[in-house]
Amino acid sequence: MDFPISDCGFYPNPGGFEDFARTLYIKQRFRRENTMSMHTRQQGGSGIGLIIFLAIAAYGVFVAIQYVPQYIESAAVKSILDNISDQNNHERMGDMSAVQRAIDKQLYINERDNLKNSFTITPIPGHYVITVRYERELDLLYAKKKIPYEKTVTLK
């Protein structure tokens, strides 16, 4: 049953089932011939692509779970130093023990008592320099990276 392509219409002729069957046969043959000659393109992602994407996303989540608490801790230390500086601007701290008490109080309020040994106070004539130095470790699976944190504030 070989029908010429010129008889092919996009809608079946109202001539009945036979015309409809002939039109359908021609459409299917026309599609098959054209699709075999064209290069087919993949549509959508593959299973391996999905696994690779999920692995990269999981690694990002793994690193973020470790880094976010360090970021929060760093923000708390900055807040402590800002509060001490504001406190000194309102009422000047006279000696090193007053500065140390202010640091201890802020550490207690922010629940960061574990950083007490990270603070150093250096007296310079006329003012004090407070420095905070500590390290945290970030596990990247292939290596453990030490991240140093250092912040300084001068009380005049």
Structure, explained:
A three-stranded antiparallel β-sheet has the order 1-2-3, covered by helices on one side. α2 packs antiparallel against α3 (96-109). The radius of gyration is 37 Å and the shape is rod-shaped. It folds into two domains: 5-37, no CATH class; 63-155. A hairpin with a 2-residue loop joins β1 and β2 (127-139). The protein has helices spanning 17-37, 47-90, 96-109; strands spanning 119-124, 127-139, 144-155. The longest helix has 44 residues, at 47-90. The mean pLDDT is 81. The chain is α+β, with helices and mostly antiparallel strands and 156 residues long. The protein has three helices and three strands. The termini are far apart.
